[in-house]
Design brief:
Elements lengths: L8 E5 L5 H14 L2 H4 L13 H12 L5 E8 L2 E11 L2 E8 L8 H15 L4 E7 L3 H9 L3 E5 L2 E7 L8
Parallel strand pairs: 4-5
Antiparallel strand pairs: 1-2, 2-3, 3-4, 5-7, 6-7
C-alpha cells in the first residue's frame, strides 16, 4: 500500500523543448529556491530575488543544457519539487541537484541521489562525482549516506560515490 503521507519520489527526463516541463521547473524554483541555488550567477543587483527577466533567463538556461547532460525533473507524487542532472565524463558521471524548500529535510535528497547512482551505473559509470560547499550540510549528508568519499578545500567540497559494476560483488 502506498504511503499517502509521503508520495513516491521519481525522476523524469526533462524535455527542454517541452514548454510545460520547463515551466514546471521554473515554477518550482521561483516558489521554493533562490536563483543562486538553481542557476549560474547573472550579475543582477539582488541575487536573492526572482524577477521576470531572471525567470526567463532560467528558462533559457534549462533549454540550453549541453547534449552530454541529462536533466531530470524531481517529482514527488505529481508535483515537480526540484531538478537533478547527470553528465558523463569518461568513466565518471557528474551530478547536481536542487530541491525546493518544501521538499527539503524529508529524505528526498537521499532518495534522488540513490536514483542518480542507479542511472549512472546503468550508463556504465564507475563513480558519481559531485561538487558542493562545506555549508551544504544536507547535500553532504546525502552523499555520505551513499558512501561518498569527501574531500574539502576551504569552503569547496568534492565528493565521489563509487559505483559497483552490475553483477559485481566487489
Amino acid at each position: 500500500m502506498a504511503d499517502l503521507a509521503h508520495p513516491p519520489v521519481t525522476l523524469r527526463v526533462l524535455d527542454p523543448d517541452d514548454g510545460s516541463d520547463v515551466a514546471a521547473v521554473v515554477a518550482a524554483a521561483v516558489g521554493g529556491a533562490l536563483p543562486a541555488d538553481v542557476m549560474p550567477p547573472d550579475g543582477a543587483s539582488d541575487p536573492e530575488e526572482w524577477t521576470l527577466p531572471r525567470e526567463r533567463a532560467y528558462a533559457r538556461f534549462l533549454r540550453g543544457r549541453p547534449p552530454a547532460e541529462t536533466s531530470y525533473l524531481v517529482v514527488e507524487g505529481c508535483a515537480v519539487v526540484g531538478l537533478a542532472r547527470l553528465r558523463r565524463d569518461g568513466d565518471a558521471a557528474e551530478t547536481g541537484v536542487w530541491l525546493a524548500r518544501r521538499a527539503r529535510g524529508r529524505g528526498i535528497g537521499v532518495t534522488v541521489l540513490g536514483l542518480l547512482v542507479e542511472r549512472a551505473a546503468t550508463a556504465g559509470a564507475d563513480r558519481l562525482v559531485a561538487d558542493t560547499t562545506a555549508d551544504n550540510v544536507a547535500a553532504l549528508g546525502s552523499l555520505r549516506r551513499h558512501g561518498a568519499t569527501v574531500q574539502e578545500s576551504g569552503s569547496d567540497v568534492s565528493a565521489v560515490v563509487r559505483i559497483r559494476a552490475r553483477g559485481s560483488s566487489r
